[in-house]
Design brief:
The chain has 237 residues and is mainly α. It contains 8 helices and 4 strands, in the order βαββααβααααα. A hairpin with a 2-residue loop joins strand 2 and strand 3 (47-48). The longest helix is centred in the middle third of the chain and has 33 residues, at 74-106. This is PFL_4669 family integrating conjugative element protein. It comes from Erwinia aeris.
């Protein structure tokens, strides 16, 4: 009899990982920062205020830079380093401001209990980012939203003045806008580390358009925590 063999079963694989994320924004200030501002939206003394991108645009640009970084684009790596540094500084600033307002809110007479403040109808938003730094931008905005709620609560109960209220809000809003400013102008320019190292036509065109790359970026010494490592010797200079 001919020997019969049992066909081996194909290796089992799990399906793609999935997760969804949504946020609630409670303050008008945070919602405005999410939406951004068009350049022609608010005239001022016959002039136009500059455009401020919103969170969806910031997320998209961070994702674009992340994709370019994975393809070996040094300018993408440079902007991701700057974005991560800006996010760390801005998040620290907003958290410190929240702590200041929280200390104000707790400095009330015994016997008084304040509940947490929230909107009766918050704006619920689904969020998706192709870059971890895009989500970090979202976390910063949520922190700012929490700050705004606490600031308005403190003002409502007479614990801070109008000028103090505006100062706290300005500090937080400025922190978010600074992060937007880092990523706002990012556009893909097709160039690689080898192009810069070898002064190819693409490398020289990119340098002329975007300026010199930080040597620490080119060497791989300075990289975003979310960028792939430079493992190919030819990519380093």
């Amino acid at each position: 009899m001919a020997e019969q063999t049992t066909p081996q079963a194909a290796p089992r694989r799990s399906g793609a990982l999935q997760s969804s994320l949504s946020i609630d924004l409670h303050s008008h200030y945070a919602i405005r920062l999410w939406e951004g501002r068009r350049r022609d939206e608010i005239p001022k003394q016959g002039k136009k205020r500059p455009e401020i991108i919103g969170m969806p645009q910031a997320i998209a640009r961070a994702g674009l830079a992340g994709r370019d970084s994975a393809a070996g684009n040094p300018y993408a790596d440079q902007v991701l380093v700057r974005l991560e540094d800006a996010l760390k500084a801005a998040t620290t600033r907003v958290r410190e401001t929240i702590e200041k307002v929280e200390r104000v809110l707790t400095a009330i007479p015994a016997g008084i209990n304040l509940s947490d403040v929230s909107s009766v109808e918050p704006l619920n938003l689904d969020v998706f980012s192709r870059s971890p730094l895009g989500y970090r931008c979202v976390w910063l905005l949520v922190h700012f939203d929490q700050l705004a709620l606490k600031v308005f609560q403190a003002f409502h109960y007479g614990l801070i003045s109008l000028s103090e209220r505006d100062q706290y809000l300005n500090v937080g809003g400025h922190a978010v806008r600074q992060v937007y400013g880092v990523i706002q102008g990012y556009k893909t320019v097709p160039v690689t580390y080898d192009d810069i190292r070898n002064n190819t036509a693409r490398g020289m065109a990119a340098t002329e358009k975007l300026g010199e790359i930080d040597p620490a970026i080119l060497s791989g010494e300075k990289r975003s925590s979310f960028s792939p490592l430079l493992t190919t010797p030819a990519e380093k200079v």
